[in-house]
Amino acid sequence: MRSSSRRNSCQPVILKFFQKTILMKHIARVCAGLIVIAYFLPWLDIMFASMSGFVFGKMVLTEAGKSGGPGWAYATLFFVVLGIASAAMNRKREHIVSGLFVLLTVVWILIGVAGGPIGFEVVGIGLWITLAAAIGQIVGAFMLEESPAGDSVESGETAEE
């Protein structure tokens, strides 16, 4: 009976340590990596054809001199750069900027697709992963602890210690 009460009293301490050091420190970084990976997954699936964010980027770059393309396609060109940069720097501000930019662009895409005659049926897995990863990156950025110098805490120690 006594050992079980001791074990129960240690669980919150272990859980608190685990949350601060392992999981919460890298959630924004992992979501930034997911944004980069999802950029190359299908964003739109129409019958047998699928188009990734990378394909949209290539189309915009080749059509830029002619008629251009949808405005959101230009914004998607920055997804990979922002994802890699925020993951490499691993600071709260960069994760929030990257996550908000990606989130607003994906919402813009979804409004454009859902407003058309085809609706959400053509939205592919890559766009849904990008949406979830952008939300996760913003949430993870707020869980990231900052040191007084503004850099993120890289070691297992917290900023209070």
| pLDDT < 50 runs, ≥5 residues | 153-161
Number of domains: 1
Strand order across the largest sheet: 1-2
User: What's the gyration radius in Å?
Assistant: 20 Å
Number of strands: 2
What string, H for helix and E for strand, traces the elements in order?
HEEHHHHH
Strand portion: 5-15%
Q: What is the overall shape?
A: elongated
- Helix tally equals 6
Descriptive notes:
The protein has one domain. The C terminus is likely disordered. Helix 4 packs antiparallel against helix 5. 66% of the residues lie in helices and 6% in strands. It is mainly alpha-helical. The protein has six helices and two strands; from the N terminus they run H-E-E-H-H-H-H-H. A two-stranded antiparallel sheet has the order 1-2.
